[in-house]
Amino acid sequence: MSGLPGAGTSPGLGEASDLKFPLGAKFREPLTEARFQRLFGDAEQAPELLAEPRSSRLCRRWRRLASACSGPGAWRLLRARLPPLRWLPHYRWRAWLLGDAVAGVTVGIVHVPQGMAFALLTSVPPVFGLYTSFFPVLIYTLLGTGRHLSTGTFAVLSLMTGSAVERLVPEPLGGNLSGIEREQLDAQRVGSAAALAFGSGALMLGMFALQLGVLSTFLSEPVVKALTSGAALHVLVSQLPSLLGLPLPRQIGCFSLFKTLAAVLTALPRSSPAELTISALSLALLVPVKELNVRFRDKLPTPIPGEIVMVLLASVLCFTSSLDTRYNVQIVGLLPGGFPQPHLPDLAELPRILADSLPIALVTFAVSASLASIYADKYSYTIDSNQELLAHGISNLISSLFSCFPNSATLATTSLLVDAGGNTQLAGLFSCIVVLSVLLWLGPFFYYLPKVRNSGGMGVTGGGGGYILGHWGSQLASSAPKAVLACINISSMRQMFFQMQELPQLWRISRMDFAVWMVTWVAVVILSVDLGLAVGVVFSMMTVVCRTQRVQCLALGLAEGTELYRPLEESHKLLKVPGLCILRYPTPLYFGTRGQFRRILEWHLGLGEGRKETPKLDGPPDAVAEPVRVVVLDCSGITFADAAGAREVVQLARRCRDAGIHLLLAQCNASVLGTLTQAGLLDRVTPEQLFVSVQDAAAHALERLEPTGPKTCTVWV
């Protein structure tokens, strides 16, 4: 900076007080925006500081698209859309392979019972949960950017999908269905669930095409955590009839949680002792195992797969004790081997399911993107939110062709994968191998897995409690929830429930975020998951708008012995020059804040009636005791300005000129400066009134206030 024109050394010790000018300081002439651009800007940049022409931006975008059609450009695009091409060449085979294999197998073992359990929340037969635990995991391994993310069945999405399926394909009121009628009902529900996956996947692909990955920034952490915690309570209450062996229909819509609780309390005397015993024993095993895995995660070589142990024990108990015939405990029956034939979901259903597909797509992206970001920050790598949209969109779209229901990243299995030593997406391949083994060879071992009575009131039993499901070729008793699988559903919610432990800390950090958390949670619990999400997002955005409405415009003063300008309210030692007013407006200037901006400036500058109307605004009592001759507006906090805000600044410049006040603007970013210029600011002020910093503007103001005094208009370097 010493090479700037006008640069010099500080005055001697006897020339100025050492409180005003530190020894050895260097000085330069104030820099306006125009002068700064001449010295340091591009040669071709216009001195009028106009925004970049639209034609130039379009040409630059066209050149970028044209470069993508070249060989190197196509390779860069391919590497961007297939992440394994980036991380696989740098894979540390000796250091990471064992951890990925152990983590993948562990997660795959959990996927088997959890997939069947979450299928019950979706109101489809259990085998389709296994399909959803295979195809989406495989696709995300190839397209996802989250190295530690585990995808598959997710309780929140299963609950939302199940509510939509129950509404689209309701069970007949009588509930006494024959085997063929039950098969037709299940086929319709599977088709509706697959159509929901197809619709949500198509919506996410549309969001990817529009590059809407930035929407993940609007789904704040309190909203996502409150959503999952509230949905976990819905899952718990929806499984109470299964735990107690009560043949109750599923409640859907608003207030469904309270309707289910009322129905359970009314029917409590009719609980089934057999299913209640199975549920109690299952929870007595699963809950302690979950606690052991959490408390001894550093000492255990791999987490204990309590879910699969519970499934095997329950199957052995049912087989040896004949619970299906002696106590009418229904069992899963024969799981079909192989995969279903791929077919396109009924496109005629898409208009009906569009309203349900949108919240499912948003929840999928919100949970997956936030979970991926958490682990990316923890392990120091980055994710591409737009690529995540592509990965989950294709995952849901293609898996729907194989009768899968909506899927996303899952909290429980992601945490399990990390605890088991997973390092990259390669763990997903080992997880797929485990699920594939069950689908091809190990399905018969789950034949005697217990389940509860049919929710319609009367199940179709026979042949070990199952019936033939035509083209699926499986023996399944009914689509009602299974007792053991219901316990797995509840135990998998542990991590979501414990998120409420963060509320005291959130209260201490930010009361506004605490309010967002509580409003979202209450809306999810009282209304529904999708409506609760909408309420949470809207309320979160409203808090942002309210914060911009409650900012304080700060009057600045010079700290003695420094070049720093600080708010006058911080210290009485700050220098306040008579006739000079330096203001900082720390919020965006748009249609919602333009009125506040006008009132605050009127009060500080004594323009109009604003001073009399708002006597309690920020600033010391004597801030405007002497008429203001020069005002410096620090625009560093104005991140953007719209047309209404820009016109307000132009009007301020006109009113200041009419009142004899010299207006100086400092530290406007390029976007704000371009908007102000397009609104006609340069018709009211000259380029010499636009400065690169508050220090430069203040130095120029001092020269204007004391033209015959000592040369204090230099700026410290």
Structural class determined from secondary elements: alpha+beta
Strand content: 5-15%
Radius of gyration: 33 Å
Strands, total number: 15
Pfam families: STAS, Sulfate_transp
Transmembrane segments: 93-112, 119-143, 190-214, 358-377, 389-408, 428-449, 514-542
Membrane topology: Multi-pass membrane protein
Domain STAS: 570-701
In short:
With 717 residues, the chain is of the alpha+beta class. It has 29 helices and 15 strands.
What are the key terms here?
29 helices, 717 residues, disordered N terminus, 54% helix
Question: What does this entry look like structurally?
Answer:
This is Solute carrier family 26 member 10 isoform X1. Keywords: Membrane, Transmembrane, Transmembrane helix. The protein has 717 residues and is of the alpha+beta class. The strands form five sheets. The chain has a six-stranded mixed β-sheet. It has a three-stranded antiparallel β-sheet with strand order 1-2-15. A two-stranded antiparallel ribbon has the order 3-5. The radius of gyration is 33 Å and the shape is elongated.
Q: What's the structural blueprint in terms of helices and strands?
A:
Layout: E1 8-9, E2 26-28, H1 33-40, H2 54-68, H3 71-81, H4 84-87, H5 93-121, H6 127-132, H7 135-143, E3 151-152, H8 155-168, H9 179-209, H10 221-238, H11 240-244, H12 256-267, H13 273-295, H14 306-321, H15 323-326, E4 330-331, H16 350-378, H17 385-400, E5 408-409, H18 411-419, H19 427-442, E6 450-451, E7 467-468, E8 475-476, H20 483-491, H21 494-497, H22 503-509, H23 511-526, H24 529-549, E9 554-558, E10 565-567, E11 580-584, H25 594-605, H26 610-613, E12 630-634, H27 643-658, E13 662-666, H28 670-678, E14 690-691, H29 694-705, E15 715-716
Parallel strand pairs: 11-12, 12-13, 13-14
Antiparallel strand pairs: 1-2, 2-15, 3-5, 4-6, 7-8, 9-10, 9-11
Helix pairs in contact: 5-8, 5-14, 5-18, 5-19, 5-20, 7-17, 7-19, 8-9, 8-16, 9-16, 9-17, 10-12, 10-23, 10-24, 13-14, 13-20, 16-17, 16-24, 22-23, 23-24, 25-27
Membrane topology: Multi-pass membrane protein
InterPro entries: SLC26A/SulP_dom, SLC26A/SulP_fam, STAS_dom, STAS_dom_sf
Subcellular location: Membrane
